[in-house]
Design brief:
This protein is an all-alpha fold and 317 residues long. It is built from twelve helices and four strands; from the N terminus they run ββββαααααααααααα. Helices cover 67% and strands 3% of the residues.
Length: 317
Amino acid sequence: MILLKKKKIGFINLTRKKKARIFEIDFLRGLCILLMVMDHFFFDFSYLIYDLFDISLATAPDWIISLTEASRFYWNWNVRVITREIIVSLFLFVSGLSSNFSKDNVIRGGQIFGAGLIISIFTCSFDALSFQIVHYNPRISIYFGAISCIGLSLFLYSLYEWLFLKIDKENKYTPYASFIIGLVIVLLGFYVIDYFNAPSATGGFNIDNWFDVIIGKYVIGADYLALFPFMGYLFIGASLSYLVYKNKKSLFLPLYNKIKQSKHFDKIKKGFIPLIYISKGVSLSGRFTLLIYFTHQVIYILIIGSVLLGLGYSLNI
């Protein structure tokens, strides 16, 4: 779908041809990734910097001690634990919503799962190497995290969609079947597998327990999401994508155009300029979620490490 663009007003640049994006989907995806980035920032100041650098609460400056205390309070806060589950559920739901706009969900799901595999190899290798050097308990190993869960869920959904459309050639029932399947997966995750009360996997991630870990029977790793219940949210999002975004057009854009036609638009726009730019920034982040996921921790460690090394601390080796 192509928009003819003439001039820039608020969210919309009307000066050139540009492939249309669904603003609200980008915004929700961006909100999820930015909240995850914030979550990891607090984890770094809670634990990671003390593993990587020769620093302790006894030797740290007051501002680091204060930040660590606030970070550890946040990290163990019940509200944070509940909010995380809501955010990752929303992430899977939005991934399902956007599936209707992808040319090939099999390839896309495989690419995302491959990215998750790279993250697993890197984090597990980092922890193993760190344990050999400084003998600290592994903290960042990711065996089956959010990216892996999204990739595999999308891949399985695309196979389901391909098979179901062989029967439902006119796509009359596929969205409703997707919703029912998604709801069943969520309920199975909550009440049969009981993901939220699942015990930690003993002996690590291995050939004997990998399937139980993936479906949610056992919990493992620093960032972990199971197919049950979270794959269900992707199926539900995909079903609503067919129904709500049948014409593959933004629901936000018509509302914005109505506001734009108001005689008070200029006054409204001036009052909401900060919100406009924040919204555009969040939406832009939603276009580059994988890039942000891959790079944010490296950037954090480089910045924090530069500060600590500058203060005279050394690497914990």
